[in-house]
Write a structure and sequence with these properties.
Elements lengths: L3 H17 L1 H6 L2 H21 L10 H30 L7 H24 L12 E3 L4 H11 L2 H24 L1 H4 L5 H23 L11 H19 L3 H5 L1 H19 L3 E3 L5 E3 L6 H6 L17 H30 L5 H20 L5 E3 L1 H10 L4 H15 L2 H8 L3 H23 L6 H19 L9 H7 L4 H14 L6
Antiparallel strand pairs: 1-4, 2-3
Helix pairs in contact: 4-5, 4-6, 4-12, 4-17, 5-15, 5-17, 5-18, 6-7, 6-14, 7-14, 7-15, 9-19, 9-20, 9-22, 10-12, 10-19, 12-19, 14-15, 14-16, 14-21, 20-22
Length: 505
């Protein structure tokens, strides 16, 4: 492609040829005329490419689709990972519940596509008309693990998570309508501390998957550890030794490499083992292709695949987590507008984005899917590529919807070995910690900010992550804090930010 100055100059030249010197154009040889016309067509293509950097720019499908798929690649794995983790924690990842998990994964892709389209094009006050990709939130994993631990797992616990998500989503959407006066309570030090605590709570989850999953009979075996390490190494290679599409798709490539490695391992290594009690079992890294073969090619996502349960043990901590999610959404929207459009978001964009975040989560719960929120991975991708075109992102959303109509794809994802997931999850979850640190250090560190971060993490996150210390506290405290340190850390950070005297400027 020519440089912008050259393109502009040549366009002026052609315009002069066609408009002011028409006779010269007509007298030119046929070959010369063809060259000029081809150049005009090339300039049209250049114009279309420039539209990628405009939110409302018109793009051809051949240009929009690859750009949209790039965004899908950045979030595809992250969109399904929380479901894999929580269904496994609830004990509905296999056996009699195998079909249910496939259905949920299918619905996760369908819902992500629908909610993204609403965020891009808006329905009344719902949606911010911002270049954001929506998907299943990983920030709730810690809180949901706490709910599962409190309620004992099973379909009942998963149903309670759905009920809490419906109420929490509505609550977040209400916050969206009153977002402007609430923004002052969530400076970078508060949002950064919350994001940091989310990352810390997820690292242990990623490590559990790294070893093959807590419930695996061969947890921590050399096969599981080496498989996870292989996936991690592949991700690092593609992330830092390639550029462009390959670099942004490093996690997806790592996952695919993990599938190939697991397949090869199944050909050369024993696929079964024997416990100390003499019980034979299938190793965690073995791919169950029968599950894929039995899945259908096309199906409409099921409405309420599990019975929705409204239980205060789930509702209280999840509602508070939705406040945290609203803060995250504000941060993501601000990041994508500053990184992609070089401006701050308007109050309308922020409000509409948060409302969509909340109602999208309630909508997701009706299909048995965990809360939907803005994806930080895609915020980073926008900041890197500057591609903000609505049609490009919408083409990615349509692709997600189509994937949601193909159960075989959901089944293929559901057979992913936990070790493969862990190899990717360790890096993804650790990067959330780094994002939190970046938010905290966005402004100058002062004794005040150090105090907020230290106390929120030490007392809030520390006590919440060690639930036994709260055994003698009132029940509502146990309900709110559970086994996750995210909510108490958020509480402490917000409280200290309000109470501590401001630094003198």
């Amino acid at each position: 492609m020519l440089q912008p100055f050259t393109e502009k100059s040549y366009f002026i030249y052609i315009k002069w040829q066609l408009c002011y010197n028409e006779s010269a154009f007509c007298k030119a040889s046929e070959t010369q005329n063809v060259k000029i016309l081809r150049r005009v067509e090339h300039l049209k293509e250049v114009k279309l490419e420039e539209a990628a950097y405009q939110f409302d720019g018109k793009m051809s499908l051949r240009q929009a689709i690859p750009l949209g798929l790039q965004h899908v690649c950045a979030m595809f794995v992250g969109n399904l990972t929380p479901l894999l983790i929580i269904t496994s924690a609830c004990g509905i990842a296999g056996g009699e519940f195998a079909d249910l998990q496939v259905t949920l994964l299918q619905s996760a892709m369908f819902v992500a596509g629908i909610v993204t389209l609403v965020q891009l094009f808006t329905i009344g006050p719902v949606g911010g008309a911002v270049p954001i990709i929506m998907g299943t939130s990983s920030g709730f994993i810690g809180v949901f693990n706490s709910v599962v631990g409190t309620m004992g797992g099973g379909v009942l616990a998963y149903g309670a998570i759905m009920g809490a998500s419906i109420i929490g989503g509505i609550f977040e959407s209400v916050l969206g309508f009153f977002l402007k006066p609430l923004r002052k309570f969530f400076p970078p030090v508060v949002t950064g501390t919350v994001v940091l605590s989310i990352g810390l709570s997820l690292i242990s989850v990623g490590i559990n998957s790294f070893g093959g999953g807590n419930s695996a009979k061969d947890f921590g075996s050399m096969e599981n550890l080496l498989l996870a390490l292989f996936v991690l190494v592949v991700i690092l290679i593609f992330k830092h030794w390639t550029t462009g599409f390959l670099s942004s798709s490093a996690i997806l490539i790592g996952i695919l490499a993990g599938y190939v490695a697991a397949f090869v391992m199944g050909l050369v290594l024993p696929t079964t083992g024997v416990t100390a009690d003499g019980v034979e079992f299938t190793k965690a890294w073995v791919l169950n292709w029968n599950k894929v073969a039995q899945a259908s090619w096309f199906a409409i996502p099921k409405l309420m695949p599990v019975k929705i349960v409204f239980d205060m043990r789930a509702i209280m901590p999840v509602m508070i987590m939705f406040v945290v999610t609203a803060v995250e959404a504000v941060g993501d929207i601000s990041g994508v507008m500053e990184g992609g459009m070089n401006r701050e978001p308007t109050d309308k964009e922020l409000s509409g984005g948060v409302i969509c975040d909340g109602l999208g989560s309630s909508f997701a719960a009706l299909f048995g899917v965990l809360p939907n929120t803005s994806f930080s991975q895609n915020v980073g991708l926008v900041a890197m590529t500057k591609v903000v075109n609505r049609m490009a992102l919408a083409s990615g959303a349509v692709f997600l919807i189509l994937c949601g109509l193909i159960p075989k794809l959901g089944a293929l994802i559901s057979i992913m070995p936990q070790a493969v997931l862990g190899g990717a999850a360790v890096m993804m979850f650790s990067s959330i910690v780094v994002s939190g640190i970046q938010l905290i250090t966005k402004e100058k560190m002062t004794p005040r900010t150090l105090t907020i971060v230290s106390v929120a993490l030490g007392v809030g996150y520390g006590m919440g992550a060690n639930a036994k210390i709260l055994a003698n506290t009132p029940q509502f405290v146990q309900l709110i804090c559970g086994e996750s340190g995210i909510v108490p850390a958020a509480f402490v950070a917000i409280l200290l930010n309000c109470l501590l005297p401001r630094d003198e400027k």
